[in-house]
Structures are given as structure tokens and as C-alpha cells.
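Internal tracking record. Fields below are filled automatically when a chain is submitted to the structure queue. Please do not edit lines marked as system-generated. If the sequence contains nonstandard residues, flag them in the REMARKS field before resubmitting.
Queue: standard
Priority: normal
Entity type: single polypeptide chain
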Amino acid sequence: MQDMGSRYKVLDRVILTVIDKNGNIKHRYDSGYKDNGITNVGLLDIAILTGGVTLIDPYRYIAIGTGTQAFDPTQTALQTEVKRKTASTLDAFFDAAGGHLLLETTFASADGLTGTQTITESGVFNGSTGGSMLARQVFTGITLNWGAGDRLNVKWDILFARA
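SYSTEM-GENERATED OUTPUT FOLLOWS
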């Protein structure tokens, strides 16, 4: 393969914010950009989408779960998915860091979530069920009391940058 002279990388970042029923921020977690959360299938799908090789569904869904297994690029699903939603915010832009795909949604009791739960993983998917997983991150548990009105805002930023 010919060296095209430029190197590129795909990084992922997740920001989680727990908001109580009064709108107060109870907890915030920012992973920072990581270079180890994009799956093998995600990399393949990026190539397919870029080249228009075949039609695949775009990545528009965010899932949360309770799995604690470390990230592995061969993973195709969250370890223990709790809920998946369509991103309420979907955007793309370019800045000094590179090109960004932004997805954001908020999980709450209105989504059928009940009781108290500790969320430890999140991922980006191209289907409302099943589908391909672009990225996954595992983090220290964030405890939510859905019944008391806690909400979890999840923001994903997939960065396409020069290495």
C-alpha cells in the first residue's frame, strides 16, 4: 500500500452529567479524548460510509449499561445494556482539532428506567436494537436514582484528526 504522507486517528470522548429533579448537577464525568474506544466494526463502517461502498445505517443511537468488562476492539455490543435512545442532538463540525461527530441524549424515568442503578458503560450504535457499535467506553460507576428524578445526559464526541 502506498504511503499517502498523512496519518489519521479516530478518538472518542464521552461526557456524562447527572442532573437531579431540580436541575442541579450532581455529578459530571469527562473521559477526555481516548484512542482506544473505537471498535473494529466501527473502523470498517467509517471506511464503508466514506467510500459509499454499500449502504449502512448511520450512527445515531446512544446506549448505557452496567457492564464492567474492559474495552476490546472486537466487541460488538455493550456488556450489559440497560437502555438505548436516538440521539436528540446530532451534529458534525470542523475545528482546529479535526472533524467531529457529536451525539447527545438524556436518559430518565420517562424512558422506563426505575429504581436505583449504577451505570458503568456507554456506546454509540447505528440501530435502535442490534446494529453495529462504533465506540464503547467503560467508566467508574455513576449511581442514579431514577425514581427520585435523576437524569443522565450523555454526550459523545467522535474526533477524526491528523495524527
